[in-house]
From TrEMBL:
Organism: Testudinibacter aquarius
Protein's UniProt name: 3-isopropylmalate dehydratase small subunit
UniProt record similarity statement: Belongs to the LeuD family. LeuD type 2 subfamily.
PANTHER family: 3-ISOPROPYLMALATE DEHYDRATASE SMALL SUBUNIT 1, 3-ISOPROPYLMALATE DEHYDRATASE SMALL SUBUNIT 2-RELATED-RELATED
Keyword Metal-binding: no
EC number: 4.2.1.33
Pathway: Amino-acid biosynthesis; L-leucine biosynthesis; L-leucine from 3-methyl-2-oxobutanoate: step 2/4
Main function: Catalyzes the isomerization between 2-isopropylmalate and 3-isopropylmalate, via the formation of 2-isopropylmaleate.
Keywords: Amino-acid biosynthesis, Branched-chain amino acid biosynthesis, Leucine biosynthesis, Lyase
Gene designation: leuD
GO biological process, one term: L-leucine biosynthetic process
C-alpha cells in the first residue's frame, strides 16, 4: 500500500486538542474540521487536500482518547500519518479508523509542501522533492488488513461475513 501527497510538517507534542479543538466538539466532524490545527497553523484546514500526508515529530496525539482528532484528519483528506513517535491511544485510534500511522524516527529534511511518498508495507518514506529516503516502521499484516478494510468496524464485518 503506497500513498503520495503533499507533506504537512509539524513539531513535537501536537496533541489531540490542537488537532481537534475541544470547544468545537459539539459540532459535526465536517463542521469542526474547519478548526483543525488552527492553534499552530491557521490555514491548515483550508489548504490541506485529499491524499496529503501529515508528518509530525515526537509524541503526536497526546491528550484525550477521543477519536475526533484522527477522524478530523481523515475528513480533511489525510491518508496517512507519520511521526517520530506517537501517543499510543492516538496511534490505535488512527488504525481503528483505517488511517495508517507510521513511525519514522528520522524524517528530518522534509519540509511543508514537499511531495512525499510512503510505502507502508516496505516501511519507506521518500521525499520526492529532495530525492531523499527514510526508513520507517512496517505495519503487521493484520493491521494492514484492517486498514485495507477501512478500519476496525469494517474489518470485523468482513471476518464475520456481513
Amino acid at each position: 500500500m503506497e500513498f503520495e501527497g503533499k507533506a504537512w510538517v509539524f513539531g513535537d507534542n501536537i496533541n489531540t486538542d490542537i488537532i481537534s479543538p475541544p470547544q468545537y466538539m459539539e459540532l459535526s466532524i465536517e463542521e469542526a474540521a474547519a478548526y483543525s490545527m488552527q492553534a499552530v497553523h491557521e490555514t491548515f484546514a483550508k489548504q490541506v487536500g485529499e491524499g496529503d500526508i501529515f508528518i509530525a515529530a515526537h509524541n503526536l496525539g497526546s491528550g484525550s482518547s477521543r477519536e475526533t482528532s484522527p477522524l478530523t484528519l481523515k475528513y480533511l483528506g489525510i491518508k496517512v500519518v507519520v511521526a517520530k513517535s506517537f501517543a499510543r491511544i492516538f496511534y490505535r485510534n488512527c488504525i481503528n479508523l483505517g488511517i495508517p500511522a507510521i513511525e519514522c524516527p528520522d524524517w528530518d529534511g522534509i519540509s511543508e509542501g514537499d511531495q512525499v511518498s510512503i510505502d507502508v508495507e516496505k516501511g519507506e518514506l521518500l521525499n520526492l522533492t529532495r530525492n531523499t529516503r527514510f526508513k520507517c516502521s512496517k505495519l503487521p499484516d493484520n493491521i494492514m488488513q484492517m486498514i485495507a478494510a477501512g478500519g476496525l468496524v469494517n474489518y470485523l464485518k468482513t471476518i464475520k461475513g456481513e
